[in-house]
Fold:
Amino acid sequence: EDKVVQSPLSLVVHEGDTVTLNCSYEVTNFRSLLWYKQEKKAPTFLFMLTSSGIEKKSGRLSSILDKKELFSILNITATQTGDSAIYLCAVSRKYGVYGNKLVFGAGTILRVKS
Amino acid sequence: DGGITQSPKYLFRKEGQNVTLSCEQNLNHDAMYWYRQDPGQGLRLIYYSQIVNDFQKGDIAEGYSVSREKKESFPLTVTSAQKNPTAFYLCASSVRDRLNTEAFFGQGTRLTVV
Structure:
């Protein structure tokens, strides 16, 4: 059975802190790992990772994938109150010849206090 | 503007009634998905469709039904057989491609049983 596990489930930090969110997975026919940020309603895309060891970066956010250990982390440096959200990790697995199926973790609820 | 539109944003249902949630996309995506989100449980897959006139059950399909008569549309019916339908429902779409696995989300429908 496909499984995506995120930790911690929730986190409270102060502005300026650095946080690390974790995602481990057990999925057959792996294609990619994706991170999303969900503030109010629709999750918005952050990163897609397909290769081990290559860091993806966007501003204060960065992420890396370890396909041997089946693990990914999302780092946020110098956190701001606007980073408060649910961070979702999803793994895309092959379905059929070209199709994909996304399996989501439970999410990490991050609250940044000013 | 291309995107995914879900309607309505809020929906109230009496026990024993069937309701249909709408999802329309103009991104020319082949694949479409329905997810349910409960507090602390991330996104769980209800149904997905990789192509018109074809769809598969996800992890929690009981009490739900879908159709995919047009590429742009993937409506979800919550039937009276669904024991606990109060939740936030998200529709997503993606290209049917092994390299591009990112899913785009609608703004969601919050269903409440009264």
